[in-house]
Specification:
alpha/beta; six-stranded mixed β-sheet
Length: about 650
């Protein structure tokens, strides 16, 4: 990647949350009266922001020197009209002026996809995306700003990426060959063939030090004379060994202290998370990649070797330890020498990926002795026509490419200085993410019809009509068809329903003598069954107590009978449940005297009532989870019969 990447600004697209991304500036939507929606409060410590004195009903900065800008996004035209476009240009121009003189890279400005949630244009998402991407791409280039368009919504993210793929390559600061490489990697990610190997360069743009700077700071903390470190400059491992002698058992905790300074993920982390790779290996200690994955709405990755790999959940192998376990840190000469004896399975896992996946190596110089040894062993083992993957090089010299050009496709970020090279890497990763996002979860969603040709809009409308017929019968053999139509956007609530079903398995459960309490699941099954039969959403505790006590009793894990009040209250932290009539800081003791009402959340209740197939899925999942914690399967069948009988009354 050439110096062209430094010549103008770039529009990045990020799947994640605005408050999770580290940026120089954030643009927050509001209206003329400065009403900021509650879902933006995390940007302000969980509290509503105060109206700035300079608010002029168009846009302003939150305070002198602040990094938040507010813009009135209310526009009564079809999508992004001239008035809103002028405001967005003006607010971004104000951001650009605030960062003069410039640093080694353009400022990063993060903003949401305006108007598609609470902004009044939710039914026009396709048109909004078309107009907004076109506008921001032009403004970013004109003002030399890096604009990050951020959305947590998978269908919006996929639709934005679809629209970008239809544009010409002239908008990319990449050569045609680099775009072909990006497309190849994106398709591999989409097909599950791409694994990631991440080094320190990924986290440097989040504010974390590279190895050299880390050792200098640790040396200063340990009281090691700078000259002593300089004498060992040709051997960073020996520098670390000397520092370790001074710090002793505190080495890991000091590294953790430094690494925890980074509170937000970088663009690189977010773009890599958008690839949705299942298998990731890293030499980094931080948890920023895991944070970035979680911000997309996916399950937080399992961390190997300390957690068990789970179905449908990505994993991250921490080869050199992690910040949450300071004792696991690998940094010194001694720890590297002992690595093979102590961590051989970790090395074997990386070698397996080199042999079975296309590995995208990002943010490392391929100078880690352990990684080199593992790669050489695989190199000797495999035939010469096997490729390990693609290497994105942000080092100062591409000379190392010659050592590995038979195994890696090598892309060198040719720019002046590390910061500029990391930015060039991010632009390439943005292209990879664009090609990877091809799940088409927006395709049949009527709100995105503006991205389709008129003939395609007609066909999509006809296909949507099929879904309502399939949803009306939970036991139809066409259920796989319903799932496929929903995945393609015919059901705008599909992603939410999948997330909610997955959340069931994450509910905390009490346990005793090796048995887990199924109490929460029994209460939820009771509520879902009632909703299926048309009962009111919320029920007072007194009206439910006797029935729930009878239902819960067979599933006791102690001598005493379970108290219905416990799951009734504890479920309040779940997206499945709503509990009312309690004080601001409630405890379980408040439920009975206040006769607190509770039941399925509004979204859950409406899903159950609207989609009988989802209702059946919820029942099946709850029954499965209850059955896992009982010894006698007949108890579960008895529970189902009892619930159906009582709900039908």
């Amino acid at each position: 990647m050439s110096n062209a990447a430094n010549e103008s600004g770039h529009l990045f697209v990020v799947h994640g949350r605005l408050e999770a991304l580290g940026a120089d500036a954030v643009v927050v939507p509001t209206d003329a009266d400065f009403r900021v929606e509650p879902h933006w409060y995390p940007l302000f410590g969980g509290e509503p922001p105060s109206k700035p004195e300079t608010w002029d009903k168009a846009f302003c900065r939150d305070a002198q020197g602040g990094h938040n800008w507010f813009v009135n996004v209310i526009d009564h035209s079809a999508a992004v009209g001239a008035q809103l476009a002028d405001r967005l240009r003006a607010v971004l121009a104000d951001v650009a002026r605030a960062f003069e003189p410039r640093g080694p890279r353009p400022p990063v400005v993060a903003m949401p996809v305006f108007g598609t949630a609470g902004g009044g244009k939710g039914g026009l998402k396709g048109l909004v995306i078309r107009d907004l991407v076109t506008l921001l791409r032009s403004v970013a280039a004109d003002l030399s700003l890096d604009v990050a368009l951020v959305t947590p919504d998978r269908s919006v993210y996929s639709a934005v990426q679809h629209f970008r793929r239809t544009a010409t390559a002239v908008h990319w600061q990449l050569t045609p060959e680099q775009l072909r490489f990006a497309q190849d990697l994106g398709i591999r990610a989409r097909d599950g063939d791409l694994a990631l190997f991440l080094g320190a360069g990924v986290s440097m743009s989040a504010g974390l030090p590279g190895w050299k700077d880390l050792l200098e700071e640790l040396g200063s903390k340990a009281g090691v004379d700078a000259k002593a470190l300089l004498n060992l400059k040709d051997s960073p491992l020996d520098q670390a060994e000397l520092i370790s002698l001074r710090l002793g058992d505190n080495l890991g905790s000091e590294i953790a202290r430094i690494v925890r300074r980074a509170k937000k993920v970088s663009l690189a982390h977010s773009l890599l998370a958008g690839l949705r790779c299942r298998e990731v290996v890293t030499t980094n200690y931080d948890e920023l990649y895991e944070d970035a994955v979680e911000a997309t709405g996916e399950l937080r990755p399992t961390v190997i070797p300390w957690e068990a790999v789970q179905p449908r959940r990505p994993w991250v192998l921490k080869m050199h330890g992690e910040v949450g376990r300071p004792e696991s840190v690998v940094l010194t000469r001694r720890s590297f020498v002992r690595y093979d004896a102590n961590f051989r399975p970790a090395g074997s896992l990386l070698q397996a990926l080199m042999m079975t996946r296309h590995v995208l190596v990002v943010g490392t110089s391929m100078s880690d002795d352990n990684v080199i040894r593992l790669a050489i062993e695989v190199d000797d083992f495999l035939s010469r026509d096997h490729s390990f993957g693609t290497f994105i090089d942000v080092s100062e010299s591409p000379a190392r490419a010659e050592l590995w050009n038979t195994r890696f496709r090598w892309l060198h970020c040719d720019a002046d200085g590390m910061v500029a090279r990391v930015r060039a890497m991010e632009i390439f990763l943005d292209a990879v993410a664009m090609y990877a996002a091809q799940d088409e979860s927006w395709l049949l969603d009527e709100r995105f019809r503006g991205l389709l040709q008129s003939s395609d809009q007609t066909a999509a409308s006809e296909v949507r009509g099929v879904l309502s017929h399939v949803q009306s019968s939970p036991r139809t053999q066409l259920r796989p068809l319903r799932d496929k139509l929903a995945e393609l956007g015919a059901d705008p609530h599909w992603d939410e329903s999948r997330t909610l079903l997955t959340e069931l398995e994450q509910l905390m459960r009490a346990s005793k003598n090796g048995r887990r309490a199924a109490y929460k699941y029994v209460v939820l099954l009771w509520a879902v069954t009632r909703a299926e039969h048309g009962h009111e959403r919320l029920t007072s505790y007194e009206d439910a107590r006797g029935e729930l006590a009878e239902l819960l009793s067979p599933f006791r894990i102690a001598e005493s009978a379970p108290k219905p009040v416990d799951p009734w209250f504890a479920l309040g932290t779940s997206s499945w449940w709503e509990i009312r009539d309690l004080p601001s800081s409630p405890t379980v003791q408040d439920v009975i005297p206040r006769n607190a009402r509770a039941g399925l959340s509004v979204n859950l209740y409406n899903m159950v009532r609207r989609d009988s197939v989802f209702a059946q899925e919820a029942v099946e999942r709850l029954i499965k989870l209850i059955a896992e914690d009982v010894e006698d399967a007949s108890q579960v069948e008895s529970l189902r019969r009892q619930l159906s009988s009582e709900a039908a009354q």
